[in-house]
Amino acid sequence: MSDNDSLPAADADAFRQKCRDFLQQHATGLSRAERANDRGASMMAAAKEFQNALADANLAGLTYEKAYGGAGLTKAHDLIWREEYANFPDMTGELTISHGMCLPVLNQFGSEEQKKRFLPDNIAGRTVWCQMFSEPGAGSDVASLQTKAERDGDEWIINGQKVWTTLAHHSQYGIIIARTNPEAPKHAGISMFIMDMNLPGVDMRPIHQIDGGKHFNEIFFTDVRIPADWLVGELNNGWNQATAMLMYERVAIGTGSTSGVTHQNADRLIEEAKRRGLINDPNLRQQLMKIYSEETTKSLVSMRTRAEMKAGRTPGPGGSLGKLHGAIISRLLRTVIGEVFGPDLVANTEGDKAELWGTIMLTSFSANIAGGTDEIQKNIIGDRVLGLPREPMVDKDMPFKDLKVGTQR
Questions:
Q1: Where are the domains of the chain?
Q2: Kind and range of the H or E run holding 148
Q3: CATH class of the domain comprising 131-236
Q4: Going residue by residue through the chain (409 aa), what tens digit of pLDDT does each one get?
Q5: 12, 145, 248, 383: most buried by Cβ count inside 10 Å?
């Protein structure tokens, strides 16, 4: 990966035109039927098709090395792509976890063999990856996880349960963290692994949601055997790697796939309010302006985060700012969507605009939980961004086996 900060003007213009030409041909948007279908199946198929075309055009994985399936270009190229992509419909939202979280973690911590084997298919969208952190007894306190990995010769045996795993039922692989040393304190005895989602003993159960989709899953692992060399990074150092992955997650959720100042939800709702003759309502105008302001602020925070990454810094706790802004926007959207569409949110036909906004409204509740609750983000911002005193941790140095967490009673 090259870290060049700038490109000659002629090269930048040529690359920008290449991106624009590709997007005009391929970023055609998703139909209402695709968006309404099971919140995943058709959207995932469209995302993979788009990503395959990106790879064929040498525009996938712009800053990743060619040896790992990337384009081997600079962060300046990546910025140009994001600026152009902001003018087109997002085609790869279903690959946010696969590309925004799993890919950079594998690139940072994976062995040479792992990167050569797994990164090219991930970058090209031939395989999709999921993240398996949360458990029924380890949500906000992920370090309390009980899923265990035990070494048996040339294999690891995985037993346990994960929950709220996004798009696992559309994924071929995943990143999982498991306990490898229960004698150590809870943060010290965790390791990270690659998981083949089709192995014997992996029982995937999609969770039926309020919006009618099945976006999340609970997964049970019963004596699942994976190769010993699928350990990612150092043994028992998985918490540091998991923390890095959470940072990538918050950057991916908080910054999205584009660059520049955007306020797409506000723009679309303002247009709909005009169409329905509601735009002169002062209360609605005030609420629309709040969304516009929050989306603008989120864009500016995202631009700063991307600039830090372009300067060579790994994602830090500041990514929680963008994630928190996204959750605030989702909360504001619920009220405004209800006021703009009214009874049409309930009395509509399948696939029409009101139904899609109704789905957005119902789905928005997960934004305040997924990727870390609002309360967790505020704690991170207070502690690691503002430097406020940390909350006391009475279990910090206790062996995990002695803690009363999850089913350990």
A1: 9-91, 131-236, 260-372
A2: strand 148-152
A3: mainly beta
A4: 444 457 899 999 999 999 999 999 999 987 656 665 555 678 899 999 999 999 999 999 999 999 999 999 998 999 899 889 988 989 998 999 999 999 999 999 999 999 999 999 999 999 999 999 999 988 878 999 999 999 999 999 999 999 999 999 999 999 999 999 999 999 999 999 999 999 999 999 998 877 777 788 999 999 999 999 999 999 999 999 998 898 887 777 656 656 678 888 999 999 999 999 999 999 999 999 999 999 998 888 877 777 776 666 666 676 788 888 888 999 999 999 999 999 888 877 666 788 888 888 888 888 888 777 888 888 888 888 888 998 887 777 888 888 887 777 6
A5: 145
* The residue to which tokens 């029409």 are assigned: 352
- Residue 177's nearest CA partner among 151, 153, 149 is 149
Structure tokens at 333: 């959207």
pTM of the model: 0.84
Show which residues are catalytic.
249
**Contact between residue 166 and residue 130 where contact means Cβ atoms under 8 Å apart:** yes
